[in-house]
C-alpha cells in the first residue's frame, strides 16, 4: 500500500513538472511572438486585410521659355475589377463589354482572374466612365488617372516627345526628363475580412500622389510657330524627303526653336509610321554639309594665320590633288581673286588650297575643337556623333575635300553649334533645351545655365570670319538670305547625298544655309537643311537662303531687335532679280487641286500660304479678280466645307480638266461633288460646262476624251 502511494506521488510530480515545462514553453513562445516577431506579424496581418488601389501621379507640365503651357495632363478614369467581389461575372461582362467596345469573353476573362486587382481598360473618356458608373456593379471600380495632352498638336513634337499607356516617357523631353516629370504615385488602402469582403466602418486610407515637376524649355512658342510655318512652305513647294530648321541663341547655346518634316501629332503618335517619330533628324541625321562647312575652314585658317583676306588665289576651274582633278562649281573657274572673294564665291579650288596649306594636324585640331565627331550633349536621346575619318587614315585628298565640306558628315545641331562659336566671339557653347525644373508652386528646383565648352578661336578671328560671311550675304552666293534692316552673315551649302552603297546618289542633293544676325550683336543663329528637294531647284542659295531671310526677319522683329538704317543691300543678284511690283488680278483658284492653284499664282507673280490640310483649295483670300501687287500673299483654305461632302445644290466652280486622264478627271470632280460623264478614251480634250462655270454639286460634267497624238 505504501509503495502505491509513493508511485502516485512520483507520477503527480512528473505530471506537474511536465505541465510546468509546457506552460513555460507556451509563455516563451508567446513572448517570442509578442515581443520578437510582433511587428513583423502585425504588418503581415495588415497586408492580408488590406487591398490597394493605385492612384497615378499627375505628370508635370512642359512650358516654353515664356511660361506658355505646351504639354499638360488631363484627368481620365481607368476601370478596374476586384474579381472576388463580382457576384455574377457573366452578367457583369455582358453589361460592361459593349460600353467599353470590348469583347464579352475578353472582359469575362479579366474579371474572373484569381487575383486581387485587374485593370479592365485604362483612361476611358468621360461619357464611357459615366455609363459604367450608372451600372453600379459591385467589384467594378474607377481610378482617376491622367492622360497627356499636347496642346498644339504638331508644334515641336520631336522635342516634346510623347508618353505611353502608363504615362511613362517614351520619346523626346518626355523620356529624357521622365524622372522629374512623372511624380510619385499614391494609393487607396481598404480593409477587408478573410473572405475578401469590405469591412463596414473599416480602415480606409488615402495616400495622395505627388505631382511631377514642371519642365521649362528654352523654346519660344512664337518662334517655333515661325519655324513650323517655314517648314510647311518648304514641303509645299519642294516636297523634300526631309527638312530641318533650328534657331538658337548663339551667345547662350539655347535652342529657341527646332522643327522637322515629316512631322506628327504626339496626341496620335500611334497613327503614324514609326520612321516619322522614332528619330529626330536635327540630332540624328548625318549628312555632308557642303559649303556651309567652309565656315569652319575659314575660321581655322584665319586663326592659324595660314591666310589673310587680301591674299590672292587663282582658280582655273579645278584643283588637282594627287591624280584627281576637283572642279569648281563655276565652269571655267573664278580666275584671280582675293581670299575674301574666295569666300564670297564659295570657290572650291580656293578652299582646297587653304585646307592643304593648313595641313592635316592643324585642320583636325579645329574639327575636334568645333565639336565634330562627338555628340553635342543637347540632352535628347538618340543623338548621333557625326562621321569623321580618323586622323591617321586621312589623306591629302580627304583634307582637300573636307575643306569644302565633303568626306565629313555632321548633324544639323553640330553644325549650328559650331557656327555659334563664330557668331559669339569664338566660344563653343553647349546646346541645351531646358532652362529650369520647377515644382508646382513655381519654385525653381534646378536651373540650367549656359555652359562654355571651350574657346575655339580668338574673338578677333571670329569677328573677321563674321565679316567675310557678311560679304557672302551682301555680295556672294548667299544674297537671297539678305535680311532687310539687319546685318546678316552666313554660308550656303549644296551637297550631294551619299548613296547607301557608297559614292553619291544621282540627282539627290542637300540644300542648306547656316547664318546669324545681326552681325554686330548676334541674337539668333539659324540652320536650314532641306534634303532631296523636288522640282528642279536644289541650290542652297535658291532653296534654303530665302527661308533664312524670311525667318530671321520675323524672329528679329518679334524679339524687338531694332532695325539699322542705311545698310548696304545686295546688288546684281544672279538668282533673284528685284523686279518692279506691278498690279495684277488675283486668279480664281477655288475648287482647283493645290498644285494647279500654286502654279497659277506663281505664273502671275503672287505668293501663297495654306491654311489646313488637303489637296484641294476650297477658299481664297483675296478673292478672284481683286487687284493686288505682285508678291502679295494669297491665303488658300484647304479645309473648306468638305469638298465632296458638301451639300447637294451648293455652287462650285467647274475645274479645267484638259489633258487629264479619265481617272484623274473623275477623282477631281468627285472631290468637288460633281459627276463625270466621259465620252471616248485617252486624255480630256473638251468639256461642258466650260472651266470656271458655277454648277450645283451633284450635277454632271461631260468630258470628251481622245487618244494622245504621236507627237504628244
From TrEMBL:
One GO cellular component, as annotated: plasma membrane
Keywords: Glycosyltransferase, Membrane, Transferase, Transmembrane, Transmembrane helix
Annotated localization: Membrane
One GO biological process term: cell wall organization
Entry annotated with the keyword tRNA processing: no
Domain PASTA span(s) in chain numbering: 581-640, 648-707
Main location: membrane
Keyword presence, Lyase: no
Similarity field: Belongs to the transpeptidase family.
Superkingdom classification of source: Bacteria
Protein name, per record: Stage V sporulation protein D
Single Gene Ontology MF annotation: glycosyltransferase activity
Annotated EC: 2.4.1.129
TM helices/strands, residue ranges: 12-32
Region feature (Disordered): 678-712
Amino acid at each position: 500500500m505504501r509503495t502505491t502511494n509513493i508511485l502516485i506521488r512520483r507520477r503527480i510530480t512528473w505530471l506537474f513538472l511536465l505541465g510546468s515545462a509546457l506552460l513555460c514553453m507556451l509563455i516563451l513562445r508567446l513572448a517570442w511572438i509578442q515581443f520578437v516577431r510582433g511587428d513583423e506579424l502585425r504588418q503581415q496581418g495588415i497586408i492580408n486585410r488590406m487591398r490597394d488601389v493605385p492612384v497615378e501621379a499627375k505628370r508635370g507640365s512642359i512650358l516654353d521659355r515664356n511660361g506658355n503651357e505646351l504639354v499638360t495632363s488631363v484627368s481620365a478614369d481607368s476601370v478596374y475589377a476586384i474579381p472576388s467581389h463580382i457576384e455574377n461575372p457573366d452578367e457583369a461582362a455582358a453589361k460592361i463589354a459593349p460600353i467599353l467596345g470590348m469583347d464579352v469573353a475578353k472582359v469575362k476573362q479579366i474579371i474572373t482572374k484569381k487575383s486581387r486587382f485587374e485593370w479592365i481598360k485604362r483612361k476611358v473618356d468621360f461619357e464611357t466612365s459615366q455609363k459604367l458608373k450608372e451600372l453600379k456593379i459591385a467589384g467594378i471600380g474607377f481610378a482617376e488617372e491622367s492622360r497627356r495632352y499636347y496642346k498644339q498638336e504638331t508644334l515641336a513634337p520631336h522635342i516634346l516627345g510623347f508618353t505611353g499607356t502608363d504615362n511613362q516617357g517614351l520619346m523626346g523631353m518626355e523620356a529624357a526628363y521622365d524622372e522629374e516629370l512623372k511624380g510619385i504615385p499614391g494609393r487607396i488602402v481598404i480593409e477587408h475580412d478573410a473572405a475578401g469582403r469590405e469591412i463596414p466602418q473599416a480602415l480606409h486610407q488615402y495616400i495622395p500622389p505627388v505631382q511631377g515637376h514642371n519642365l521649362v524649355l528654352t523654346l519660344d512658342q512664337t518662334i517655333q510657330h515661325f519655324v513650323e510655318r517655314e517648314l510647311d512652305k518648304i514641303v509645299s513647294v519642294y516636297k523634300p524627303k526631309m527638312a530641318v530648321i533650328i534657331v538658337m541663341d548663339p551667345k547662350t547655346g539655347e535652342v529657341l526653336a527646332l522643327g522637322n518634316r515629316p512631322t506628327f501629332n504626339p496626341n496620335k503618335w500611334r497613327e503614324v509610321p514609326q520612321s516619322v517619330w522614332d528619330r529626330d533628324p536635327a540630332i540624328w541625321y548625318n549628312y555632308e554639309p557642303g559649303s556651309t562647312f567652309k565656315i569652319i575652314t575659314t575660321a581655322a585658317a584665319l586663326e592659324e594665320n595660314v591666310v589673310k583676306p587680301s591674299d590672292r588665289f587663282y582658280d582655273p576651274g579645278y584643283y588637282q590633288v594627287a591624280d584627281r582633278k576637283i572642279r569648281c562649281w563655276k565652269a571655267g573657274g573664278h580666275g584671280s581673286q582675293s581670299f575674301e572673294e574666295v569666300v564670297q564665291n564659295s570657290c572650291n579650288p580656293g578652299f582646297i588650297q587653304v585646307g592643304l596649306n593648313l595641313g592635316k594636324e592643324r585642320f583636325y585640331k579645329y574639327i575636334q575643337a568645333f565639336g565634330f565627331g562627338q555628340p553635342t550633349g543637347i540632352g535628347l536621346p538618340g543623338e548621333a556623333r557625326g562621321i569623321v575619318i580618323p586622323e591617321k587614315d586621312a589623306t591629302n585628298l580627304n583634307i582637300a575635300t573636307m575643306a569644302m565640306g565633303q568626306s565629313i558628315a555632321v548633324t544639323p545641331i553640330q553644325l549650328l553649334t559650331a557656327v555659334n562659336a563664330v557668331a559669339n566671339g569664338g566660344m563653343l557653347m553647349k546646346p541645351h533645351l531646358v532652362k529650369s525644373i520647377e515644382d508646382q508652386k513655381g519654385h525653381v528646383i534646378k536651373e540650367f545655365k549656359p555652359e562654355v565648352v571651350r574657346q575655339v578661336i580668338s574673338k578677333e578671328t571670329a569677328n573677321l570670319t563674321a565679316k567675310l560671311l557678311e560679304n557672302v550675304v551682301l555680295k556672294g552666293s548667299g544674297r537671297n538670305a539678305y535680311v532687310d534692316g539687319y546685318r546678316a552673315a552666313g554660308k550656303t551649302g549644296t551637297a550631294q547625298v551619299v548613296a547607301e552603297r557608297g559614292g553619291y546618289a544621282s540627282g539627290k542633293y542637300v540644300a542648306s544655309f547656316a547664318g546669324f544676325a545681326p552681325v554686330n550683336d548676334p541674337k539668333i543663329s539659324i540652320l536650314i537643311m532641306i534634303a532631296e528637294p523636288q522640282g528642279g531647284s536644289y541650290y542652297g542659295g535658291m532653296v534654303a537662303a530665302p527661308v533664312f531671310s524670311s525667318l530671321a526677319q520675323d524672329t528679329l522683329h518679334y524679339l524687338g531687335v531694332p532695325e539699322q538704317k542705311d545698310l548696304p543691300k545686295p546688288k546684281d543678284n544672279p538668282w533673284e532679280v528685284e523686279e518692279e511690283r506691278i498690279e495684277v488680278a488675283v486668279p480664281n483658284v477655288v475648287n482647283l487641286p493645290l498644285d494647279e492653284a500654286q502654279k497659277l499664282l506663281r505664273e502671275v507673280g503672287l505668293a501663297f500660304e495654306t491654311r489646313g490640310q488637303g489637296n484641294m483649295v476650297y477658299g481664297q483670300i483675296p478673292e478672284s479678280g481683286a487687284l493686288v501687287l505682285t508678291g502679295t500673299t494669297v491665303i488658300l483654305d484647304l479645309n473648306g466645307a468638305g469638298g465632296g461632302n458638301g451639300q447637294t445644290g451648293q455652287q462650285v466652280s467647274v475645274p479645267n480638266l484638259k489633258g487629264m486622264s479619265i481617272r484623274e478627271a473623275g477623282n477631281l470632280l468627285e472631290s468637288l461633288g460633281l459627276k463625270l460623264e466621259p465620252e471616248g478614251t485617252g486624255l480630256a480634250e473638251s468639256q461642258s460646262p466650260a472651266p470656271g462655270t458655277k454648277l450645283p454639286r451633284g450635277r454632271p460634267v461631260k468630258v470628251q476624251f481622245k487618244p494622245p497624238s504621236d507627237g504628244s
